[in-house]
């Protein structure tokens, strides 16, 4: 009886081992499971993303042309002392520099003008006196010429009259030159006075435009030193209702930026609000940072509500294209390629499109949008265990989805974006039950790895 039971146990054990071996050999290995996404119809927007800074449209840096101590600040439109954010108008006093030294220079220059004017009058009087002496000498000489050298007029006297007349003419010419010199000196003194008065006027800092004080860079009692560089006192934004965003755009995308192109942007200060603007111009002075070339693009926007403050960081989107109610396919579907044995035999004519020896996946590129927009492509529709190729005309893309056109591609068609085997599914889901041979294989690999580690 015991021998009979042993035989039954051995037979049952052999049958179990054989059944397990059969199941193991009969299990299809790495049967492909296609990962698909449906073709859908919708709207597509293509944009270029960049980062910029909110800047006033026009900024004036108000400086000082004289050195001295800041004595007082002026008052703004609301009667308050000039400070950050003050609204000012053209000609309004912003600050005053201590004028004592410059007033002294004006007084000295004015005194010099008065002195030179007096010298001019003195020179004119001397000229008139010399002219009178010249007239007297001329009359004596004329009488001497009528008498001539004779017994009535000694030759020495005749010669003396002639010499006196020549000396008188020379003195007149000399005094005329003195008058001109006095007048020139007066003009120079007058110019020095005007210069001193203008320098004194520079002690009063006035606003050259209507605007808002963006930055006040001095305080009362601070000494301003004007040398080769003009010290900056105030930064005035001319009109904060019209503001710009200066955006750094990569050279790979600059060709898609056009004047008056629509732009949207957000700022961290108001993350839930989207602001709108248009491209003003592209500056040609490119900059290079770490071998990356960028261009500055000016985006004009309206700031009538005053919410946008200068120098906020803006996250900008340039609108390069829009499509409405078009077929959309994932870009992953455009990159995927099947193996030869995964293609429907009825589509054998399209096998030439598949690169030999692999899936032929297309690598990512910064210019992928431009390349896709100018090509046709092939997508693969899941038909169970096989796939069917569909040639599509590619349109606009946003980097994730691409507009396609095809006659035999209905809405909702399952388009393959990848492939996975049964083992891959088990690895992706750690909670799914695994067959015993998979667990055994895993343990064997783990033990071998540990052995190598011990060695």
In short:
This protein is of the alpha+beta class and 455 residues long. The protein is 35% helix and 33% strand. It starts with a helix and ends with a helix.
Number of domain units: 4
In angstroms, what separates the terminal alpha carbons?
Answer: 52 Å
Instruction: Please indicate the percent range of residues in DSSP E strands (runs of 2 or more).
Output: 25-35%
Shape: rod-shaped
**Structural class by helix and strand composition:** alpha+beta
> Helix proportion of residues, in percent?
25-40%
Uncertain stretches: 24-29, 350-373, 436-455
Q: Give the helix tally.
A: 7
Strand order of the largest sheet: 2-11-15-13-12-16
How would you describe this structure to a colleague?
This protein is of the alpha+beta class. It has four domains: 33-44 and 325-426, no CATH class; 48-55 and 238-323, Beta Barrel (Elongation Factor Tu (Ef-tu), domain 3), CATH 2.40.30; 62-98 and 207-235, OB fold (Dihydrolipoamide Acetyltransferase, E2P) (Beta Barrel); 102-201. The chain has seven helices and 20 strands. It has helices spanning 2-26, 100-147, 155-201, 331-335, 368-373, 422-428, 436-454, and strands at residues 33-38, 40-56, 59-63, 68-73, 87-88, 93-97, 204-206, 211-216, 223-224, 232-237, 242-250, 262-267, 270-282, 287-289, 292-302, 313-330, 376-382, 387-397, 401-405, 414-420. It has a six-stranded antiparallel barrel with strand order 2-11-15-13-12-16. Strand 12 (262-267) and strand 13 form a beta hairpin. The radius of gyration is 49 Å and the shape is rod-shaped.
